[in-house]
Amino acid sequence: MYRAVKRVFSVRNKQAFALRLVMVGLLATFIVTAFATVESEEARSPDIYLLLTAFLFVAVGAFYKLQQTSLRRDQMLMMQRKENAAMRVALDTHAIVSVTDAVGTIIDVNERFVELTGYTRSEAIGRTPRFLHECAEGENTFHVIRKSLDQGLSWHGEHCSVTKNGERRWFEVTVVPMMDRRGKLMKAISVRTDVTEQRAAEGDRQMRAILDNLQDEVFIYNLDDTSLRYMNRAACDRFGWALDEVAGKSMRDIREDFEIDRFRAHVAPLLEGKVDATYAQGKLAGSPVEVSTSILETADGERVFISILRDIRERHALARAKLSSVSVVSHELRTPLTAISGAIKMLRGRFDQDMSREAAGVVEIAERNCDRLLFIVNDILDLEKIEAGKMAFDKKHIDLNGLVNEAVTTLQTYASGLNVRIALESDCDSAMVEADQARLMQVMSNLVSNAAKYSSSGDVVTVSLADNGNCWRVAVRDSGPGISRENQKKLFDTFAQISAADGKKRLGTGLGLAITRRILDNHQARIAVQSEIGKGSTFYFDIPKLVDDGSNRMRVIAA
Hints:
It is built from 15 helices and 19 strands. By secondary structure, it is α+β, with helices and mostly antiparallel strands.
């Protein structure tokens, strides 16, 4: 009895305090009743005392039972509070939590929100979550979430958000509305989990599954230091590496002669956003290859290079077979064509004054077409010689500056016939190279005549010579119709017939650029093109410098 009463009186809450008051009242009533009946005869009867005592015990027992029930309920509530606090800690540790009011204004955020978004509490509270949805995907999701909340529905899904520093991140989100008794939205609780890494990993897994089955060789590497991040199976097989051996290697391990400065110059238009991809052809481990390089944006927004290397031995074999069959015919054609051309020139020289205007016109047409046929035949035979390695290159020390000037002067007559002017830009007093002057002049003739041919009347073709590190860069720029990305891949193939973007037809053999590239290959020079539809094209080549090694001897700098 005493212990029960003591326990009741020791509870420090409002309900226990009320019980104490009741029990004090009962005790007081018992005492008062006992003293009040001392003088009466009925009070002397023990029945009254027993009745009051029994009543008191029943009341105390009832109140004790009620107190025990209250204590258990309080313990359960305290346990629930502890569990809720533990869940809140776990939630704050692993998820982003934000609370918005009925109109969508943020009224509270947790520390994880501050950590992952970069916004402080003061920067977030008082704003709507729209500032987290600045990307196109997130903006659309924001409206969908608001529509669900206005209908009293929870929303679950993924959305893209933009952090304070501009980084795009993906979150798995659950938004739960809290409604009042009338079904009106009071507030909403958003719980976000960062799934950017998981999403990127899944994207990488799917992409690698696709790339690993490609026959082309794929290299993915960083923009800053060209360290490799991925090579597909075909690429690893070429170098005899396992897939897990790629980490820690760079593009320098792919090619011993890889030079970062030259590579930077090659991909500069790509980094500047002028082109979607760059293309180059060369040899790797003795095999002819074609490499296209573009920029890939990963799932977490990081930009990396992706180069796709294609072995073009079969293409070259087919081209050589085609060239071989055509060259046989060309050999047979050159002798009679030369004889016909000589006969026409002799005819014009002897009887030009005696021929009527109509006859002279016919002879002129015959001579022009005969010269064109001879030009085609000579191009085919030149290409055959280069492919067979039989073309002789008489390389000497020459001044590229003088050769470019001579080319501009010589080709101005041809350009003038098309009402096109050729302008020269050069800041080099001397640009020494080791080259075959006649063959380099052939290269300049092909590039400049093509630029003039694809220019409009009144346009200017610009020929420039500039210092480009270890190389001299010669560029020919026009304002013509431009070349599509797909056609740029075929420009230097033999017999390539490229449809002009403006729809106009120009005469050509499809061999000029193929011969140009092979001549430059023999000079350890590389040719490339930058072009955009409607904005013209720039063909340029980098040729190694010839410099004094300090002992009055000239040497070629490695390209």
